[in-house]
Structure of SDR family NAD(P)-dependent oxidoreductase:
Amino acid sequence: MLIEGKVAIVTGAASGLGAATARHLAERGARVGVLDFDGERAEAVAAEVGGVAVQVDVADETAVDTAIGAVAGHFGTAPRIAVNCAGIGPAARIVGREGKTSSDLFERTLRVNLFGTYFVMSHAAKRMMELEPLEDGERGVVVNTASVAWEDGQLGQSAYAASKGAIASMCLPAAREFARFGIRVVAIAPGLFHTPMMEGLPKETTDEIVANIPFPHRLGLPKEYALLAEQIVTNPFLNGTTIRLDGAVRLPPR
């Protein structure tokens, strides 16, 4: 699918991978809906890319539906591109000190990461189905964000790994379901990236993390995630798969 002139929505687009993707798609000519829980920062990114900002909690299905509708209303047509970057990454042991369990954290993580992704995919695809097919029969593409923790989650990442593993697992059945409508679904599983989450770590911690990345021997750049998202949108034969983007890293147990 050619990106130029298409409407795209990007969640988590006020920072990190989402902001880089919003900027990159706009550079390629997309009209971008910038969706984020942080409305003020979303407004700043939208102003930068000439898009529209919508404050939304992706864990709230009604709010998601309203937000996607607002983007469609602003641009006069439903999005053909949806990129899910919104997510959280809290860490906790299943059973911590003094026998304290982390059920609340587990539920919250799945609510934001998994349910949020599912809600956005559902309501974006629902609108894509109503669009006229393009020349090759395609109506839209959904890009979801998993994580390498899906396959090699570390100690304390049970909630995060479960949420990202579910995103990877639902990629193929979702792609099969939407195939007859000409809608593709692909997931990206990023490794260790230079995002706001990483920027808050001490240098020695960051150095330890980078030591595990074979090549390039550095953290991934958000722009590199955006480049892969672009490739997924523009390559019509990419469908129903999860792609690791990780510099050949395999996470150690801790």
DSSP finds ten helices and seven strands in the chain. The longest helix spans residues 103-128. The chain has one domain: 7-245.
